[in-house]
Automatic annotation (TrEMBL):
<dbReference type="GO" id="GO:0003735">
    <property type="term" value="F:structural constituent of ribosome"/>
</dbReference>
<protein>
    <submittedName>
        <fullName>60S ribosomal protein l21-1</fullName>
    </submittedName>
</protein>
<dbReference type="GO" id="GO:0006412">
    <property type="term" value="P:translation"/>
</dbReference>
<dbReference type="Pfam" id="PF01157">
    <property type="entry name" value="Ribosomal_L21e"/>
</dbReference>
<dbReference type="GO" id="GO:1990904">
    <property type="term" value="C:ribonucleoprotein complex"/>
</dbReference>
<dbReference type="GO" id="GO:0005840">
    <property type="term" value="C:ribosome"/>
</dbReference>
<keyword id="KW-0689">Ribosomal protein</keyword>
<dbReference type="InterPro" id="IPR018259">
    <property type="entry name" value="Ribosomal_eL21_CS"/>
</dbReference>
<dbReference type="InterPro" id="IPR036948">
    <property type="entry name" value="Ribosomal_eL21_sf"/>
</dbReference>
<comment type="similarity">
    <text>Belongs to the eukaryotic ribosomal protein eL21 family.</text>
</comment>
<dbReference type="InterPro" id="IPR001147">
    <property type="entry name" value="Ribosomal_eL21"/>
</dbReference>
<dbReference type="InterPro" id="IPR008991">
    <property type="entry name" value="Translation_prot_SH3-like_sf"/>
</dbReference>
<keyword id="KW-0687">Ribonucleoprotein</keyword>
């Protein structure tokens, strides 16, 4: 049987949380203010499905191009060398 090519296929270790870092997401994660021009690393939490991007973008660095109230629009810059 061939392996599937679904949205979250082959992400067992990619979206997993590190040892002793599991649990609810802290409120400060959502209250962080990003300004236009800031460089950000795109990281996904596997426990949060809403707004989850494709695995291709995990670990990429981008620059904030537009920052409406509940959304960040990034321009991708490069691929990180080390992934966690």
């Amino acid at each position: 049987m061939l392996a599937g090519h679904e949205l979250r296929s082959r992400t067992r270790d990619l979206f997993a949380r590190p040892f002793r870092k599991k649990g609810p997401t802290h409120l400060t994660t959502y209250l962080h203010i990003f300004k236009i021009g800031d460089y950000v690393d795109v990281k996904v939490k596997g426990s949060i499905y809403k707004g989850m991007h494709h695995k291709f973008y995990h670990g990429r660095t981008g620059r904030v191009w537009n920052a409406p109230s509940a959304l960040l629009v990034l321009r991708s810059i490069s691929r990180l060398v080390t992934e966690s």
